[in-house]
């Protein structure tokens, strides 16, 4: 029997044994170990499946199909999109043996492997092979601390780390191309169905989508609504997509163009940060507070429009610390916290800054100061945990926090 078939038989036998075991009776520590081990085992299985799929062109040929992914999709009732993603991963592993080794060892998650391979493959053709190897190695190191979502953002700027001399110019060119494509493909389609409803779809530049989403999230913020408004006719809580739909209606019907809604003390704006040199540079770039980037030219244009707060480092800034003068953080402090923290500081939480509360590490009621050193952003859920006596909050060296139930 082929070693791979033999391995799969052993896995199937082991799974049969575990199938009848009830995980609810496991101790907390056992569940933690099991969940981590399962994630690693899944990565190893994904790697093996992708490798076999990439080596199975003969299977597709045997059935007159373009590749084995088309056959697998039908045979296993998998979507063709998913099967082709697995095939692409297998081919990427052939081209990136170090990534393949990490995934096969369970040290890398499947989506991380895809992101690392795509980031390296997206480097300009003139980048030397040695630089590509350094970029791949750096991304694999960063994968120990960052998930696929973060790695995708880091991958776009990996040249800044391994080859700073070409990184800035390359990023500016890529962003300029993305912005030109976005401007050229904008569209809006609205169709009335004749039954009192209008359906639509739109394509817009990313910064426009970010601004629009911020406005709607501010309007849909539960803090602005009563308990009854948050529930539907059956008494169940309305899902976010429903509340965003209601926010869109309110946005169109009630809000003038010169007024924007507020949430958590800050206008629903997008904050753009850049140095003075980047602002003046022909091919500079700027950082948005959600982690994405744009060209300096785009930022200069948006700085003249509503909905954008330009924070040019090195220019005269607003006072950010007010000590004991007030209990609540000011708008300037909220913006500064958003730039520093990027969102909820609870480890693993992806809530953006606009959806967070400003929290005093040392409570104001006990003499804590209302300043940046004593403040952090927490989403509503983690903010409740921070004030829940049943949980202990630990602040780590990277300013992230974790919570653990007290024993």
How is the largest sheet built, in terms of strand order? 7-6-5-8
- Share of residues in strands: 5-15%
Low-pLDDT regions: 304-309, 314-324
The geometry reads as globular
Q: How many E strands?
A: 12
State the end-to-end distance: 52 Å
Give the biggest sheet.
4 strands, mixed
Helix % is 40-55%
Radius of gyration: 25 Å
| Overall average pLDDT | 83
Structural class, judged by helices and strands?
alpha+beta
Order of helices and strands: HHHHHHHHHHHEEHHEEEHEEHEHEEHEE
How many distinct helices?
Answer: 17
Keywords: Coiled coil
Domain HNH nuclease: 332-384
Protein name: HNH nuclease domain-containing protein
InterPro entries: DUF222, HNH_nuc
Give structural attributes:
globular, 407 residues, DUF222, HNH_nuc, coiled coil, two-stranded antiparallel ribbon, alpha+beta, HNH nuclease domain-containing protein, 4-stranded mixed β-sheet
